[in-house]
Chorismate synthase (Marinobacter persicus), 1456 residues
Amino acid sequence: MSGNTFGKLFSVTTFGESHGAALGCIIDGCPPGLELSEADMQRDLDRRKPGTSRHTTQRREADEVRILSGVFEGKTTGTPIGLIIENTDQRSKDYSKIAEQFRPAHADYTYMHKYGTRDYRGGGRSSARETAMRVAAGAVARKFLEQRLGIKIRGYLSQLGPIKAEKLDWDQVHENPFFCPDADKVSEMEAYMDALRKEGDSIGARINVVADGVPPGLGEPIFDRLDADLAHALMSINAVKGVEIGAGFDCIEQKGTEHRDEMTPDGFLSNNAGGVLGGISSGQPIVASIALKPTSSLRIPGQSIDVNGNPVEVITTGRHDPCVGIRATPIAEAMMAITLMDHYLRHRGQNGDVQVSTPVLGQL
Amino acid sequence: MSGNTFGKLFSVTTFGESHGAALGCIIDGCPPGLELSEADMQRDLDRRKPGTSRHTTQRREADEVRILSGVFEGKTTGTPIGLIIENTDQRSKDYSKIAEQFRPAHADYTYMHKYGTRDYRGGGRSSARETAMRVAAGAVARKFLEQRLGIKIRGYLSQLGPIKAEKLDWDQVHENPFFCPDADKVSEMEAYMDALRKEGDSIGARINVVADGVPPGLGEPIFDRLDADLAHALMSINAVKGVEIGAGFDCIEQKGTEHRDEMTPDGFLSNNAGGVLGGISSGQPIVASIALKPTSSLRIPGQSIDVNGNPVEVITTGRHDPCVGIRATPIAEAMMAITLMDHYLRHRGQNGDVQVSTPVLGQL
Amino acid sequence: MSGNTFGKLFSVTTFGESHGAALGCIIDGCPPGLELSEADMQRDLDRRKPGTSRHTTQRREADEVRILSGVFEGKTTGTPIGLIIENTDQRSKDYSKIAEQFRPAHADYTYMHKYGTRDYRGGGRSSARETAMRVAAGAVARKFLEQRLGIKIRGYLSQLGPIKAEKLDWDQVHENPFFCPDADKVSEMEAYMDALRKEGDSIGARINVVADGVPPGLGEPIFDRLDADLAHALMSINAVKGVEIGAGFDCIEQKGTEHRDEMTPDGFLSNNAGGVLGGISSGQPIVASIALKPTSSLRIPGQSIDVNGNPVEVITTGRHDPCVGIRATPIAEAMMAITLMDHYLRHRGQNGDVQVSTPVLGQL
Amino acid sequence: MSGNTFGKLFSVTTFGESHGAALGCIIDGCPPGLELSEADMQRDLDRRKPGTSRHTTQRREADEVRILSGVFEGKTTGTPIGLIIENTDQRSKDYSKIAEQFRPAHADYTYMHKYGTRDYRGGGRSSARETAMRVAAGAVARKFLEQRLGIKIRGYLSQLGPIKAEKLDWDQVHENPFFCPDADKVSEMEAYMDALRKEGDSIGARINVVADGVPPGLGEPIFDRLDADLAHALMSINAVKGVEIGAGFDCIEQKGTEHRDEMTPDGFLSNNAGGVLGGISSGQPIVASIALKPTSSLRIPGQSIDVNGNPVEVITTGRHDPCVGIRATPIAEAMMAITLMDHYLRHRGQNGDVQVSTPVLGQL
């Protein structure tokens, strides 16, 4: 509960630094009886993995996850699932500069203030590398939600800097390195990214995530509303600066007659609510959208200070993503999956409706 | 922890329905030694109170809070503070229609699905009336933060439907019924609201909240980031559909060189981060912005269904706010105050730095 | 979560001081649809109430509980249940002595160290008066457990100082002021208590609590074992210094062949485990036993110090129970009920198996 | 929070099965700046390790712990500490019998009821092997408590079946395989254990734990009393059936004049309270005592049923401790250390009084 755990009944606790020995997590609360192997997680891990196109960081991590507990004879047992990913690409490097300087818009300065110390190698705990474990944990939630409840969670990049996707073709999302659902925009995005890399600058992005098939009734008002917990989950992703549910900020200029989702016996007539009313799922698709800031690791120098308070000029030379948003789609999906799974268990219990059939002894 | 509690060390748990006997809350974790009386809370409660201008609902509630525990000889003791507001304006009314129908965009339908029952009088638990207790609890947090740490939390309405405030003059905020910081826009807003009321329609709004004087170092990565907890807190307010920290959604189109807040020995050169880096406060002002949807209680009929699934036409005739955003400023301030207070105690301990001076006995 | 809440899904948070305005609590997580009125709680409150025989404190409190929320048309709605008991017997009294002195074996000294202040009137928050709210909350849990699951929770006083009950006749428990299940010991207990009162001294006691009808499968290893949570719940009762489950401390001298509860197709052959194996209920009765210390409010003077560290002689003159154990039976029952209820919901979900039948709309 | 986490600010979450790939845990909330290496944990792990005398199970586990995160340049950073112990002694074995039978007094039957499945190899998650991670986590807490606060936590075996230690000589505790503080009883214990092993039976034990140097003021009434949390922590240890604080069950027959710990300017005159008054530490030593049941893995056959409900005769042939209490001393110390550490941080904050000295930038 000290900050590195998310979820009350489906609890995910992560550990690990960017350049430490390993990343890991414990999933506590996964119901028993779910078929689970490393392969179930690897698919999503590979989607998040760096180095798969020229548009992401060239750091090469195998990101091979290993299940250490909680699975027996191919199925979950209801006990905690321990996961680990060993770090393999720890290039020996001269960290003397980064140890002394606070990079603008990084967590360097704030970690130093909070803890009085920091593991500066590759950003340490504040590195987006930590999100690999969220993707692994999210894959477990997704499998349960899909198999048992038919819930499908999918995300896509809807905007890369100034370029907006104008079509939502789910089949296109995995056909390009951007998770872009609009095939017509892909070459424009490639050109934009190539130019950006040459400049040494970076850019922001928008990711949308949708959960189809969510039953009505999930969410615990007042504070643990489904949308509030989703906002928490999504805002906790590195670089996220904004979260919208359904119509989001557009609702400011909507009139009530326009915003309200009318109902008929055949269903809702619109989904401005994004699938949540009064903090509880309505049975419509859950729709969220997030804004990711441009990474601050730039080859263009910037003003900063060192640990002694003296002015310095900072240049980042390492391997970095010019648009961190590109790899964020699987992470956002994972966080939505974990949130929905947690609320499903809160509503239905730790056992997730497992029917137990062993003989019950009479009482003496 | 079942949904009606916010905060880990400064915990606020609320109860109460719109037309029930009373609203109440327990603040658990307020440090001892804080001077506190009902008047400290009443000021903020009065700012949220309905019926103070023609632009908000004409329901008349005294909203008089009473402290039942946790304060002794005018000061907090460290034990739980019990608060209560008796409901006084419970007009006897015919609820037969509302009991049978699901109003579009209300929580009627989802509460019915979650609980199989609902208190339909005035929206029951899903009514914004519940936020009165948040404002009361927030006032306690604000007083502590201001007195002990010099933190000042202030909010304002930055947009009412299509009308944007263009100036931020803090002195103006309390000079008009909208919490609008731009005096030049007030008459435009008044005219807009009058027209809206005639139409029987409603409109959305945007509220900004700022905390000045927050020390660096508050926030617990990875999941309990200060900004993630703020997003949780703000999204849990009725009608909120979007949350931004700092540059928010604008960061999508920002380049890294533009977004990063450079540092000099004299301070940061900008605040796109909104005062949070890596989930930890940076010492800059914490800046958040929220979108509130238009209320769905409209005099213009809408399609819906009844509890038996038959189509009905719904018209709301009661007393309602055509723009719920107008009264949301004190609520947003309260939720930011509670969040900061909680993180302050997590960082500094339940006692909030209280120095204890009683003699310690030797050990036998 | 700051100390005044018990339970994760069935959460009980209490507030109130002995001589403050009121006691109260919020029950968050009670499933919807349970018939509930004040009378359901009053029965147990009256069993705990002081002043019903000459053997307990003569303070006269009506202990009338009022439901403020969470119940609609006679049934729970799933929203938080707010409860309040106004304090009526606040005799004006001279507290100057008690304010300056630390009574031996009371919480005076430790509260002063923790908080730097304390509400000294009648023990303030540390008074056993707080347990009235636990009894009220426990009554709600008991009703649910009994009606829905057939679970019956009953306690009795098994030892008063040197006098042990030798028979367990449930019908006798409510036939005497001691909750003693052995009619033959009642007159002995009465004589003992009368002598004690004359002396101005006090005595300890042992209470046993049994839950019949608990289904197998409740409890969450490793740390939230059912027995560990029960130990937490029972040890949190004022004056409790020891907790046993099943054979308890007797198991130290038991051999494995003696202790193990053998199983046959007709049931277990013994219950040394007290109904819990590996932290999970076995289907046998849950059996716990607690030790309560003698109250320290005595008419016989004792050595102590004042707030300045000077030696003083302390005599308690107020109204007190010479054996706090006498009134503890309903409190122990309540804490067992709350613990079982919480684990039932953790296993079965917040809704406690409520079947919801409203029509589900198709998705657009 | 799903059962495998203990502590609110110093949170320990464990995973791992007896015969799985590895055991592990995450310590979340350890303050930064503590010097920490594997050696600090290994000392306590070796004290718990099986196979070090003929009186404990002959399973040979290296129990070598590896730190995976949270330590940088030899010191903790404030981020989660990931720990792992690989299982090495996984003898291939025929588990067909144990898979089909419920061993009396084991968790087999209840795990099956709760989860509908179980990892039956060596008891799976319910094996005491899990406590290795508690000992490792406890070692971190102990080091902090000792270095920063001078708190010393020590335990000993005070009774083995019928044999009671009559002297408390701390220097003797580590001079014998029983943690017995009375040298005169060691040969008697050895003979008793040898006879027991021949019989194929087992026996219970009592362990006492003492924390010296605890400052007054730790503990959060009402429910999170220090003693209630300690009871929770200690009862969560495998095989524990009873917990006492201070005088414990002896207080039943104590009079108030005997039980109350009188105070003088030089200190308390006795410690019947066991260092806790009103749920808050008093500055006296914290004293707890626990009862451990005899293990149920016996060579003497016992009646039981199989998974189909048919009667079977069960004999355990594997490697087992005839007295699980013998190795429990380090585990009890660890759980007390974790509990005290958690309450220290709740009182003093996540940072545990760390003074941070980096320059604070001015605000813009």
Notes: DSSP finds eight helices and 18 strands in chain D.
